[in-house]
Structures are given as structure tokens and as C-alpha cells.
Amino acid sequence: MDHPAVCSTLKTMRNWNIEIVNYHQCRWTNATVEGRHNRIKAFQRRHVVI
Fold this sequence. Notes:
It is a single chain. By secondary structure, the protein is an all-alpha fold. The chain is built from three helices and no strands. The model has no long low-confidence stretch (mean pLDDT about 90).
């Protein structure tokens, strides 16, 4: 496996091993919080008072 893309992918998987395993065991993410945060920020951008 001497291809740069494969080496990069394997390095990333080694660096994030605990997080990847935790996700597959629990399936809990912070997507809900991130989505709400994104909505608030978008709302603030649309309603800027100058």
C-alpha cells in the first residue's frame, strides 16, 4: 500500500481511531446542536441592523 491516498487515509483512521469506534458503538453525534447553531448564525446574518 504505497499509494499516497491510501497512506493518507490510513493515517487519518489511526489518528481518529477512538472517535471512529465510539461513533459506531453509540451512534450519537452533535449534529442537532450544530444544526441549531447554524440556523441561529444564518438568522443573525439575515437580520443585521446597520
